[in-house]
Write a structure and sequence with these properties.
Glyco_trans_14, glycoprotein, 348 residues, 9 strands, alpha/beta, 4-stranded mixed β-sheet, disordered N terminus, 12 helices, 3-stranded mixed β-sheet, transmembrane, transmembrane helix
Amino acid sequence: MFSTSTPLIPTIALLISLIIILLFAPSFLPITHRKSPPIPLADELDDLSLFTRATRRAAAKSRLGTTNQNPKIAFLFLTNTDLYFSPLWQLFFNNHSDLYNIYIHADPTVQIAPPSGVFEGRVIGNLHRTYRGTATLISAARRLLATAILDDSSNFYFALISQQCIPLHSFKYVYNALFGTDSGSIVLDKISFIEIKSNESILWDRYNARGKRVMVPEVPFEKFRVGSQFFILTRRHSLMVLRDQRLWKKFKIPCINVHSCYPEEHYFPTLLSMLDPKGCSSYTLTRVNWTGSVNGHPHTYYPSEVSAQLIYTLRESNSSHSYLFARKFSPDCLKPLLDLSEEVIFKD
């Protein structure tokens, strides 16, 4: 038998320890920064310059008292894939060119098919890489807002759309729902349609995703909110988002718990709830089915599920507004959706 003083045993123990550390280190060590890298300083400075120009331009226009006869909806497409449903959206936009603008933020590291039709030339200039579960998605949405504000002072509603979103109504229906033109008069900057929830069981884990007490004092837990990533903001609220630096410095901190890290679902609801809760609907107009969600993704609809009844069901809501958009749909849903477009989707 070996005695405990034999140097072989400590040596073997050390080797085994090293092997265990090498094998299981990813489970112990905080590797979140490798998976969810911080936003580069150069990107931050580029964004800050863009946001400052947008807010200053908006302030100058406001001082001039410019009257907009035809207020527009800015459709902000946030994507890292091809725009699968662009033919359907093309039908949606037809004959309304004076009432909308389109802006696309496409992840510059992903090769996508060149947008055509009404989407041609609408990819914005300030593009930076996006990662799921990081504040880069907040930055991308803010870049879209800033670009839209700089581009056209007639943009008064800003709808954030994903590549897997579809319209549930005609353009005329959507425009009337937002601006209230059915009554014969246009009302600007009424309210923003953004989901804001305060009593969800996930809030505590999400709040501590960056570490305990990291969010204070700027964001106390009782002010922390959750909501859908996709929203429709008024111009006034869009400018609030672009001017913010106080909450942003907290939400841009990389998470140490990647499984509870969804900054884009918290930043906008928390900020607007703190700044102007009465100016927000607290519900979204983009329908999402969270039944049977997997890894943070909602239910995906496939061609076998697409029908007129599905469209009618997706429109239904508990608020005074019908849902205007829905997600998420698999790319091969395009044909059955186009088959329904004339007689169902765009027939209000």
